[in-house]
Specification:
globular; mainly alpha; about 80% helix
């Protein structure tokens, strides 16, 4: 179950961040090449995400019923999908996941904005279920909005690191250096906003769910949430060092600084995936 949730989070985040950066960088030969290079990996990611979304339903029905035989009971499955909030949210998410996969396969590489819009909507649907949906009325809308914004900011931050590495490598080519630098500058501006958005919405979310901070580590939920916060803090530190320590060194030692930034960016992606793993687990626990 946790593995399925991890894929469902990771796939739209990678799709959203990558495609949104490709859609917003200045158009040119380099951005077109980046789109072509990433087209198949992004399509495969979208397909995997849709399969994980579809596969989640029998797992959830079996666990909710306490009987795996319920998975083959069409009446029970239909009742779960049509009569429960989590089932209705899943149906909406599954439909968007299938549309996103179809777009990723069918839309030409030169139109990343279409995939960015679809995957962004898919990512935001997670705010319809889970801890963000445990309240009613105005508070439910407030927390859902904050959670959706948190997901979108995190998705841009994490997913955009993939094409970032491509543009970073292009700095070594004198013919592509200007376009690569413009693309990286665009990422830097938006990345600052995304990271700030993750931190602010994360704090608000934590306050709304726990009415405080995760300091009671005897609670599995709070211990895992604290772990996620620690991972996010480490990611922020890597990003800050990359931007404000290593980027200025590009003029002095371009090859060395580029290699170091690339390695640290890969580490940032790995940490982001680890954070999603923690979210996938504590999202199934009672927030106490």
């Amino acid at each position: 179950m946790a593995a399925s949730r991890w894929i469902q989070y990771a796939a739209p985040m990678l799709l959203f961040g990558s495609s949104l950066l490709l859609a917003t960088v200045p158009r040119g030969d380099l951005s077109a090449e980046a789109g072509r290079r990433l087209h198949r990996p992004l399509a495969a990611t979208a397909l995997l995400g849709s399969l994980a979304t579809l596969g989640w339903l029998p797992l959830e029905v079996g666990m909710a019923a306490g009987n795996w035989g319920a998975v083959t009971d069409s009446g029970m499955v239909a009742a779960f999908v049509l009569r429960t909030g989590i089932g209705q949210a899943w149906a909406f998410r599954a439909a968007i996941a299938l549309v996103t996969a179809g777009l990723a396969l069918a839309v030409p590489p030169g139109r990343p904005a279409v995939l960015a819009a679809s995957s962004g909507l898919l990512l935001a649907t997670f705010a319809l279920s889970g801890h963000a949906a445990m309240h009613d009325g105005t508070l439910a809308w407030q927390q859902g909005s904050v959670d959706a914004l948190h997901l979108l900011c995190a998705g841009y931050w994490l997913g955009a690191l993939i094409p970032f590495c491509f543009f970073l490598r292009a700095l070594r080519d004198a013919r592509q250096r200007k376009e690569a630098a413009n693309a990286l500058r665009r990422f830097s501006y938006a990345g600052h906003v995304a990271v700030a958005g993750v931190l602010v919405t994360g704090c608000v979310n934590t306050a709304l769910v726990l009415d405080g901070w995760p300091v009671h580590w005897q609670s599995p939920y709070q211990a895992l949430l604290a772990g996620k916060i620690a991972v996010a803090a480490l990611m922020v530190s890597i990003a800050l060092v990359n931007r404000y320590v290593l980027v200025p060194r590009l003029r002095i030692d371009p090859d060395g600084a580029t290699n170091t930034i690339r390695r640290r960016t890969i580490a940032e992606v790995v940490l982001g995936m680890a954070a999603l793993g923690l979210v996938s687990v504590f999202g199934m626990l009672d927030p106490v």
